[in-house]
Write a structure and sequence with these properties.
With 202 residues, this protein is an all-alpha fold. 78% of the residues lie in helices and 0% in strands. The chain is globular, with a radius of gyration of 18 Å.
Length: 202
């Protein structure tokens, strides 16, 4: 029974990941697009998918990946997320540098750009915190609160960014993927109770 449950959980996750990616790959908006633009777009889709996986790994929710092992994979997936963001932004820079500059300076006329930039910098900050984690040996609660706060900002910013874009992702599958990422993030925030530090800083 437990093995069947494990298979169902992994199958559900695979389905939640595969459907939006496959549907994005069949989008008619990809016709006549440059390979660099397509790669940049798919890097963004992969980044959104990874945001669903990250809290599941960090919380030890996936069968066969208990918390210690899950968090090790969580760090590896975090590195992939940083790479996905760099490919996403780098590809868009190659295809349209002025648009990227406007987005980075928060002067772009498209609202989704600002949310994407906010999420990007939050991802870089969270990755930096992960690298410097050992420096917080005596202040792990501070580290956890900071990392969790950045994770919330990352997921919220990315979801808003994705929902405001009418691009290659199919609408219903994108909505479901965003909802799942929000639910998974909310669950680990509640389970880890990082906010307790605010009431008892010592």
């Amino acid at each position: 029974m437990n093995q069947m449950r494990s298979w169902l959980i992994w199958a559900a996750l695979a389905l939640a990941i595969a459907v939006p990616v496959v549907l994005a790959g069949t989008s008619p908006l990809l016709a006549w697009r440059e390979p660099v633009y397509i790669a940049a777009g798919f890097a963004g889709v992969i980044g959104l998918v990874l945001l669903l996986v990250q809290p599941l790994l960090a919380g030890g929710y996936m069968p066969g990946l208990p918390m210690p092992r899950g968090r090790y994979v969580h760090r590896a997936v975090g590195a992939l997320l940083v790479i996905a963001v760099m490919v996403h932004v780098g590809g868009l820079w190659i295809t349209s540098p002025p648009d990227v500059v406007d987005a980075l300076l928060f002067v772009s006329p498209t609202p989704f750009s600002a949310w994407g930039v906010i999420a990007m910098w939050a991802i870089f900050a969270a990755a930096l915190m992960a690298v410097l984690r050992k420096r917080f040996r005596g202040r792990l609660r501070v580290w956890r609160l900071g990392h969790t706060s950045l994770a919330i900002l990352i997921v919220a910013g990315t979801v808003i960014h994705a929902l405001l874009i009418e691009g290659t992702m199919e609408t219903v599958s994108k909505l479901l993927l965003c909802a799942l990422a929000l639910v998974a993030t909310a669950k680990i925030v509640v389970d880890t109770r990082a906010w307790v530090l605010l009431r008892n800083p010592r």
